[in-house]
Amino acid sequence: MSTALYSLLSDELSCFDIIKAFFALSDNEIEILSCVHNKQGIDIEGLTEIIPKNRTTISRSIQRLTSIGVIRKDKVNLVKGGYKFIYHSKPVNEIKEFLLELIDKLAISMKNSIQNLTDELCTELFKEVVNKYKK
Predict the structure, then answer these.
(1) 36, part of any domain
(2) Quick one: CA dihedral 119, 120, 121, 127, positive or negative?
(3) Beta bridge partners of 83
(4) Statement to judge: residues 24 and 79 lie in one domain
(5) What domain count does the chain have?
(6) Which of 29, 82, 112, 118 has a Cα at 20 to 30 A from 39?
(7) Domain of 125?
(8) Is the pTM of this model over 0.85?
(9) Tens digits of residue pLDDT in 91-124
């Protein structure tokens, strides 16, 4: 479910509200982020013991959270051979700085786009949408 930017104009936003909206995270991804943050140094097996979801679902969410940069993974070699990954959430200050940089970039991008709006451009965009359905 997407979140309208306007709905974020509140003094009661949690860090999860902001992260969830900025990256379009699912409730499942927020749960996993919470668990990783609470249990720094947890593996997939540990997460499946806490969250009643299958391993594939948790792995997919972990991969997404890692790709956006709020979780990092460390490869650990096992004594009997092989390896596993251990997951850590980034420190709150790092996530905070990351979000502040992103929001600044987003604000600049949105302001530039808004300043470049013209009646002609909007009319052309509206025509493209309508023409898509004409046959």
Answers:
(1) yes
(2) positive
(3) 77
(4) yes
(5) 2
(6) 82
(7) 91-135
(8) no
(9) 889 988 988 998 899 999 999 999 988 888 888 8
